[in-house]
Each structure stands twice: as structure tokens, then as C-alpha cells.
Amino acid sequence: MELLYIYIGDDKRNIKGCEYNFSPNYKFSFHPQSKTFYMDKCDSLYNGWFGQNIVNITAVVGKNGSGKTNLLDCIIKALCGQGGGFIFYKHNGLIYSNIPKICSDYKFAFNVIQFNRGGSPLDSEFKEHVNDTFVTFFSPSIDRNLSNRNSHYSKFEDISNSYILRLPLSRLTQEPEYARISEVDIMQTNDLFKLLLLFIYSYEQKPYTIFESIKLPEYFELKLLYFSDIQPQHPTYKALTQNLSNKGFKNRLKKFILTQVFLSKQHFSEEWDSNTTFKDVLLYLNNGENYRPNIFDTLCQLYDSGGIKYTEEKQSGLRKGYYEFSCSIQIKSITQAFITALYCYYNYIPMAPYASFGTMERNVSNAQIVINLGISSGERAIYTLVSRLMGVIFNKQGEIHYAVINKIICDNKFDGKTIIILLDEPDLQLHPEWQQKFISLLLNLLYVYFPKVTFQIILTTHSPILLSDIPRDNVIFIDKNPNGTSRVCSELNLKETFAANIHTLYNNSFFLDGVPIGEFAKHKIDVIHDRIESGQIDNNTLYDIYRIGEPIIRNILLQKYDSKRKTLPNEQRASLLKEELAKLENNKQ
């Protein structure tokens, strides 16, 4: 399936009677007076131009508040829910629409397949609807209104920050206030779990496929934390820690795990007593499934093999009752066993971990686990998008975890089907270097891991660097009308965007007037120009001109400066010429 077009009559916000074409090979239009849809076939971009499994990529650009995010919201509603707008899409070589046959007042100047009933075109309950397409949405912002918690969206998963932070989480009630784990911490822990699993996929199954571009640090920091002003009084705890030394990696780790477990609010077996072994406790953490690796043995094996760096430090914290156990783990040493053990320890009801698992809702007592990759916020942004997106697709492919042998495979049940990826300003927080790599990285990921799944990508962006990877025919330009409503600028004679100069893209694609520089810089240039025109030039005027980095503007002001200087008294001209000569000599050096 490929989404070709949407007409939005009124989104109850700022989109009123707008139409958007998503394929360079088709141009749809709607005449409201006659309620007629028209279609022209263009064939301007051949199949596979973006990649063998990429049906199309569309970028939506425009001013802030022009309706880019609202457009994506309407697409989600039209594809996965009800309302949103009238859409046309291509499936098995035929053109379909979500306009049901009952709406007989709408006319079509081309052959189109209509459904007998409305609703989502992807609803699998209706045999005549499309059953081979799935939609996912990502946004790094947290100010959206869309939430599918109480909706009836079909074949859709929201992996945006805004939605994940709204998920209901089990909150602990008896820990001190400073020990409460925030929704952001839980969200980031989930993302890092997924990223570590994705790293294992790449390292074990397809070496160096994505991490040539996404460079991870050599080590990541693992912290086990607990918060308590008391020591557990259970007889099993006392017996297992009575003669346990506080020195050494294994002793410290063992005591820390025992303390976390026995501080929890869990219901232990009534048979536990002073004869209960540490192995029994670890088995309990793994829900009695002894084929699963446990956290203690797994970390000890990593330590013995040299995969862990550990420094003996006193357990202490900034506040009373805060304790931590930390070590640095070599990323290339981690395995499925490590992820399984850590995840079972994090969740006191063990679950088989896989890259697409959902948000953790239950924690071990008042314990926390912190995974710190030592990365910047910009790096975290690209890692978050990659890990969430790959998790969704792995899930659709039927990711299966064989817990006994700690291997994960996919049954590839989504091969030959389509995933529509909607990205709302994925370039936010990304360094220009990441923006430059973004499209290439995304396309490579999708082909290397899912070569038989078809993808359509629709994204909004404010980045001219990212836009330079998209041909003009694949870009939708949006502006605002004087009354604040959205307007599609199809009539503009805009220049080519693909591989275009960034300055050109700023002026033509993002509707910036004049040279794309900061407003303060523009004001200073105007002040310099007015000073020259009025003859109020001095030594500082020349220095201000040479501060300007844009050569065209700088040279224009220099010419005006030279012309005005000739009209000054000889003594003042001589002083200025000496200053200019000194400036030129400095630049030469």
C-alpha cells in the first residue's frame, strides 16, 4: 500500500479545505463545487529510487504553526481511525479511497475502489479493507494532543515521547520522595534496553551494519540502587549476609542484590528460613525458571572474563538511605543472557525481553537500575528514534525469544507488507552531522534488517540539511494565510531541493525573507548601513563590517564605506585609511 493523497475539509484547528499529494507520480485534486476528484498520472520518479524496499519518502516543510503536525495527525486518523480526511492510496496496482459508497454525492474522474462502509481502511475486521499495512508515529516533542489510549485506531503504534510519557505506570507508595523514579527515567531505561538489544542484533547477526554510523562508547555504566533507612530483618537475609564481606566485586554484588530483594514488598515463600540458599533467592527472582540466566552469575561471568571495570568504593550517597552499586560494562561483551538477566531482575514478574517490549510497569521493590551510556542529548535522540522504530518493526515481524538458549529470531511474518512511518521533526536535537546522515542511515537500517518489508516515510522537518536529501517533487510546502489557516504552496515556482545549497533551501523552502541569518545580525547590519549613509563612520565601522561573515553583504558595505569616506575631510580620511591598512595587514598574516 502507498498513501497518495489526503483532502482535509476541516481539522477543527487550522487546516481548512487543503489537499496534499504524497507521490510524485500522481497528482490528485478536488473541486468542492462539483464534489469531484481528479487525478493525473505523472511518472516522474521511478520505482526504487530511494531504495529497493522504500516505496516513497515525502517531506513536509513550512513555517511554524502552518499545520505540519496537524497534517500528520489527520493522516493517522484517516488511515487508522475515523475522520481525518478523504484519502486515496494505491494497493496491488489499484486506486482505493476511504470515501464509502454511501457518500454517493462525491464523484471521481478516474477509476477508484470504494468500500461499503467507512472507518479505517486498515481495519482487519472488514474483509474488503486492506490487511497488509501498519502505521507508526514518532515525535521527540511532548506537546501533541494525539493519544490512542482511548481511541479505536487500527494497525497503529505511537512511539512518540508525548504518548509514552502518558502511559500509566505503577507508582511506589512507601519509598522516600527522592527515591521516586520518574516517567522520563523509565522511558529512557526502556529505550536503552532496546538499544542494547539492537546492538546485540548488529554485533552477532549482522556485524558492523549500523554501528559504523552510530558509534557507541566502549563501556556503559550500570548502577543498582536502593533507598532505605533500615536493614531487612528476614531470617534468610540475616543468614546469607552474616559472614559476607563488604570487600570485593562478588561479595558487594551479592549483598546488594539480597538487600534489594528483601526490602521489597513482595510475598516470599513461607518456607524460606535460615537454611534457604542464595541460589533459591535468585531462582525466585527468575520466577522459578532455572533456564533463565540470573543477574548475579551473569555479572560475575562478565567480571571474570574482563568485560567489567569495577572500582572498590564505599556505598554512599548524597542523602541518608541512598545506596548504589556501580560498574562499567564493555558493550561488545554483552549478550542475550545479560539482557535477559537484567530485565528479569528489573521486573519482579519476569518477562522474555525482546527489542520491541513495552514499558516496564512493575519494579523490584523500591530498587532502581540506571543504565548510562555516557552520551549527549543529541546522541540520545538518534538512539531513541532508532531503538523504538526498530523495536516496532521487529515486533511486527514476529520476534520470538528462545529463553533456554538466549536467542532471538523473527519469523518474518510481515514480509511483503507495508509499514507507513510518520516522523514529526525527527531532526530536533540532532547535530548537523546527524542531520546529514539521517536519511541515509534510516534507509540503510530498513533495508539491512527488513529487506522484504515495504516502507513509506512521511516526515516534517525544519532542517535544510535533511531536506537536501529529498527531491522537490517529494516535498510539500506549507505556509500560513493571513488569518492563520494552513495553505499548501503548490503554485510557487520553488527551486529544486535535492542536493541544493543550504542557503537556497532556507530562502525557498522555509519561507524566510532575505538572507538566512539571525534577526539580531540583520538589525546590526541595518545599523551599520544607516551609519555609513549618514556619514557617521569611524574606526569601529570598518571593524564591524569585517565581522560580517557573508562576503556579498560585507563587500557591498565596504563599497559604500569607500564611497562615503571620499567625502570626508582629509584628516579624517587619512586616519581611516591607516586603520584600514592595518586591518588588511592583519588579515594577510
Structure report:
With 589 residues, the protein is α/β, with parallel strands linked by helices. The chain contains 16 helices and 21 strands. The strands form 5 sheets. It has a 7-stranded mixed β-sheet with strand order 11-10-18-19-5-20-21, with helices on both faces. A 5-stranded mixed β-sheet has the order 2-1-6-7-9, with helices on one face. It has a 4-stranded antiparallel β-sheet with strand order 13-14-12-15. Helix 7 runs antiparallel to helix 8. The protein starts with a strand and ends with a helix.
Keywords:
589 residues; alpha/beta; seven-stranded mixed beta sheet; five-stranded mixed beta sheet; 16 helices
Instruction: State the end-to-end CA separation.
Output: 62 Å
Secondary-structure class: alpha/beta
Please state the average pLDDT score: 79
Strand order of the largest sheet: 11-10-18-19-5-20-21
Low-confidence stretches: 170-180, 359-367
Figure out the total of helices.
16
β-strand number: 21
Radius of gyration: 30 Å
| Largest sheet geometry | 7 strands, mixed
Measured as a percent range, the helix fraction is 25-40%
Q: Tell me, what's the shape?
A: flat
Strand content: 15-25%
